[in-house]
Structures are given as structure tokens and as C-alpha cells.
Design goal:
single chain; 196 residues; mainly alpha; globular
Length: 196
């Protein structure tokens, strides 16, 4: 009976936070993240496999952290010191930032942090650089992309243990090679006028 009351309270709180965030023009992502976090933690534990619940809760929590990072400007000085433009160095800078930050906050939250920067730049080449580099950078470590955590957890449940180091050794090599290829392709396509 107590669990039913907690579920009802969590749904109410989640909907209230979501409504407040919409009505007061507070960042919509934080409202949705808190709502989903409450729903998955308190309402759906019996419906979802425990390891998936943990990953979903972790992912929702990441978006809350990203909101905090966005509001405090923790990464702004590093982002501002990196030249982000359509030169070879600029495209490389986007890839390097993606490699670093995808290992700190995972690749999807990193892209969310970068949205305001790239909206101001309005360059197809740079948007493609962000998309390619954040996707490829997610392959470096287990925490680089959420799908890595899911695969590791499912493998573990099936008797296969993949440790951080075991993932990192081939992951970083593949990531560096594919990031280099991505930089080269994007720069050449921009230079030849294929993309703007």
C-alpha cells in the first residue's frame, strides 16, 4: 500500500515539475529528465529488468548534470578557447572536444551542451563534424556512449565479463582512426564545395 502511495506521489511530482518547466520557460530538458527519473525510479521498477532500470536512471541523471553544467558554464572556457570553424584546425577541434567530453558526460549529453554553440555557428560542415565526432568518440570507453553500458550489462548477465581496460584498448585505437578519417572526409568535402 505504501508503494502505491509513493508511485502516486512520484507521478504527481513528475507532472508538476514538467508543467512548471513548460509554463515558466525553464529548460524543458530538465523538466522531462526529472519527470522520467521519478517515473523510472518509483513507478516502473517491476516492469523493467533491474539492470536496464539502473542504466535508464543513470542516463536521466546525466541530463540533470548536463543542465547544471550548462547553467554554471563549467566547460565554456575550454569550448571558447577551441577554434570552432570550417578550417582543418576547427574541424579537428570539434573532434577533439567530442573525444574528451564524451568520456566525461557521455556523447548524447555532450551534444546537448554544444547545441547553443553550434546554433550560433549555423554551418552544415560543423553540424556534421559534431554528429560524426560525438558518435565516433562514444566508442573510446565504456562510458563514452550509453549503448556501451547496455551492451556491457547484457553481456555480464550472459556470463561475459568486459572490463574497462578490455574495452578501452581496442576502443581508443578504433576511435582515433575513425575520428581522423572523419576529420579528413569532412575537411575535403568542405574544401571541394560538397558541403557548406
Amino acid at each position: 500500500k505504501m508503494m502505491n502511495i509513493l508511485k502516486l506521489i512520484s507521478v504527481f511530482l513528475g507532472l508538476l515539475i514538467l508543467q512548471i518547466s513548460i509554463l515558466n520557460n525553464i529548460n524543458f530538458n530538465i523538466g522531462i529528465s526529472i519527470f522520467l527519473y521519478l517515473m523510472f525510479i518509483l513507478v516502473l521498477p517491476n516492469k523493467i529488468k533491474p539492470y536496464l532500470l539502473l542504466i535508464i536512471a543513470f542516463f536521466a541523471g546525466l541530463f540533470i548534470v548536463v543542465y547544471g553544467v550548462e547553467k554554471t558554464g563549467v566547460f565554456e572556457s575550454l569550448i571558447e578557447s577551441t577554434i570552432i570553424n570550417t578550417t582543418f584546425h576547427g574541424i579537428t577541434g570539434v573532434h577533439v572536444l567530442s573525444l574528451i567530453f564524451s568520456q566525461i558526460v557521455s556523447n548524447v549529453p555532450y551534444v546537448i551542451i554544444m547545441l547553443p554553440v553550434f546554433n550560433a555557428l549555423s554551418s552544415d560542415t560543423l553540424w556534421l563534424a559534431l554528429a560524426a565526432s560525438s558518435t565516433l568518440a562514444g566508442n573510446a570507453t565504456i562510458i563514452g556512449a550509453m549503448v556501451n553500458l547496455i551492451v556491457i550489462e547484457v553481456a555480464s548477465k550472459n556470463g561475459y565479463e568486459i572490463k574497462f581496460r578490455d574495452f578501452f584498448k581496442p576502443g581508443i585505437i578504433v576511435t582515433i582512426i575513425t575520428l581522423f578519417v572523419s576529420i579528413l572526409i569532412l575537411y575535403l568535402e568542405y574544401s571541394w564545395g560538397i558541403i557548406s
